Amino acid sequence: LGRKLNAALSSLNRAPIVDEKVVDATLKEITAALLESDVNVKLVASLRQKVKAKVKAAFESSDKSKDANRRNTIQKAVFDELVHLVDPGVEPYKPTKGKTNVIMAVGLQGNGKTTTCTKLAAHLTRLDNPRQKRRLHTSFKKERFEVIIVDTSGRHKQESELFEEMVQIGEAVDPNMTVLILDASIGQAAEAQSRAFKETADFGAIIVTKMDGHAKGGGAISAVAATKTPIIFLGVGEHLHDLDKFSPQPFISKLLGLGDMQGLMEHMQDLATQNPDKQKEMAKKLEEGKLSIRDWREQISNVMNMGPISKIASMIPGLPQELLQGSDEEGTLRMKRMIYITDSMNTLELDSDGSPFMEMGKDGKPIGLTWRVTRVARGSGTSVREVEELLCQYRMMANMAKQAGGKNGWLSAMQKMQ
Ligand code: GDP
Ligand code: MG
């Protein structure tokens, strides 16, 4: 799904002119990709309409705006609507300290309840991960968190018996939160299944398992919409640590090849041990949403020094998915090209948020590109289109950093959780 969505956005980036035709073509590709991965037809149709309405309004309000700006509008609309799909706007239960928190897992047999309960326990303790041990001491253990995870068997031929047992266990353990464990591979059936469980067990969170397989996963997204319940984790393998924290923005961002800010933050924390001052500064900028082109460039070159790009590159915001295709050597070459482009920028440009490259209209909105773009393209032996694309990617990243940062952003929410 990710590759297809990214392909749609990439062809949008390559289109010389962004008019209604291009918008329609992009939306067609995006809806096809979503349908193929089993997202509910109605949801896809409504997404398409909403994006279209947003883009249309933007086009009409600033008809002088040029293609780069239009691309941004479309990308942002797609991004926001996809986030909306996986974000029911409900906060999941968070374990509180000083009391016993009971979490109960429900779901059909084989969906991965037992596996997930084990993973969850490992996640909450992280006893076998020395790096996470520090966090354990500052949060769960020191602050006297108690979490009890209750697995259920779900081994019944009749669904009614399963639900009956679930109710009985629920009454006995009185859970603070019930989690529905959904297998990503069930596709469209996820919606009916989650509705049925919601009626009996009223779960407050969903964990989608087997996201690592060739599962389509889109059905699970539809389940979120159908039950207005947040996904909290994804199961991504059979092993103890194959559990990823789920948050709507980073998930969609990664899906679209726009990077994973959360992963990046974590990675930067690792790097902090190597160069504490520098990385602290960078993390602060990320939080404040004030990353300049120079900072972004530094992230890219950091990645290049860190070994296999395929592993790390997907975390860097604004890196196109194409960079990840092909061999690591090819990926390095492509990244070098991005570095070449920024190498041809001067101090003013590097320390900017990209605005020197934009020609502003009277209303303060960008209406085109300045001569600087041509100069950079010449200097780096690339094309105006490539420089424009790089600026586009940078701006997407910067927008996301801004959304992620601040008091209400998910970055701060994430830090509070730790
Ligand atoms: P339960 O019946 O709901 O308790 O399901 P289990 O926990 O016994 O899991 C059923 C099967 O799914 C086992 O073979 C697990 O290894 C496998 N499984 C569970 N979660 C994942 C996952 O995230 N990825 C993959 N690939 N397999 C998983
Ligand atoms: Mg089991």
TrEMBL record:
Q: For this UniProt entry, what's an example GO CC term?
A: cytosol
Which keywords does UniProt give here? GTP-binding, Hydrolase, Nucleotide-binding, Ribonucleoprotein, RNA-binding, Signal recognition particle
Reply yes or no: does the keyword Ribonucleoprotein apply. Answer: yes
EC class, as a word, reads hydrolase
GO terms under biological process: SRP-dependent cotranslational protein targeting to membrane, translocation
The catalytic activity of this protein is classed by the Enzyme Commission as 3.6.5.4
Listed GO MF terms: 7S RNA binding; endoplasmic reticulum signal peptide binding; GTP binding; GTPase activity
| Domain SRP54-type proteins GTP-binding, first and last residues per copy | 230-243
Q: Which reaction does it catalyse?
A: GTP + H2O = GDP + phosphate + H(+)
Is-annotated flag, keyword Repeat? no
Protein family according to the UniProt entry = Belongs to the GTP-binding SRP family. SRP54 subfamily.
Please give the name of this protein: signal-recognition-particle GTPase
Organism from which the protein derives: Lentinula edodes
Print the organism lineage.
Eukaryota, Fungi, Dikarya, Basidiomycota, Agaricomycotina
What range of the parent protein does this fragment cover?
A: 6 to 423 of 536
